[in-house]
Amino acid sequence: MRLEPLRRKHIRRCVEIERILFAGDDPWSAAAFHAELDAGGYYLAALTDTDDVAGYAGLAIAGIPGDRETSVHTIGVHPDHQGQGIGTALLEALLTRADELGAPVFLEVRTDNDNAIRLYERHGFARIGVRRGYYQPSGADAYTMKRQARQAQEVAH
Predict the structure, then answer these.
(1) Catalytic one among 18, 36, 43, 108?
(2) Which of 67, 92, 104, 150 makes the best surface tag, with the fewest CB within 10 Å?
(3) According to the UniProt entry, where is the signal peptide (predicted)?
């Protein structure tokens, strides 16, 4: 498995994975992925040895240099590839980018997604709030989580 920038040619497969992972809610459409790439976010694809998209992740970046904020907009790994460290690798790549910017990282995660919550907590995220009915149409709640900004030099030590 290797990570590389998410390209438009990967979007069809990302949409297929979204429909599997988030069938009970509102999976991202191709238009949503295109809009995120157009907005200049940091998006990655996890590719297999046969160049199949096994997963994807995206980090939105807001603000100006010296005053940045980031938000994990999506992480998804196809069920056939879960449990192989792909989600962890994608998250760590997003966090490395946030660290390069010296930016805090925010995200929302379903309150019943214990595996994802544990992953985020292992990487320094803390729960800072609850968004009731955040996921639609299921009405599932989400935790808002935050990881404090880390300077690149702090991470190196």
Answers:
(1) 108
(2) 67
(3) none
The amino acid at residue 7 is R
Average pLDDT per block of 10 residues along the chain, 157 residues long: 96 96 88 94 95 96 91 95 95 96 95 93 96 88 94 51
Tell me, yes or no, if 120 is annotated catalytic. yes
> 134 to each of 29, 142, 145, how far by Cα in Å?
18, 6, 14
CB-CB neighbours of 92 under 10 Å: 14
* pTM to 2 decimal places: 0.90
Structure tokens that stand for 21 in this block: 């992972």
- Domain of residue 97, CATH code: 3.40.630.30
Q: Are 105 and 72 in contact (CB under 8 A)?
A: yes
**Active-site pick, 120, 134, 135, 143:** 120
Residues composing the chain: 157
Our answer to whether residue 43 is catalytic in this structure is: no
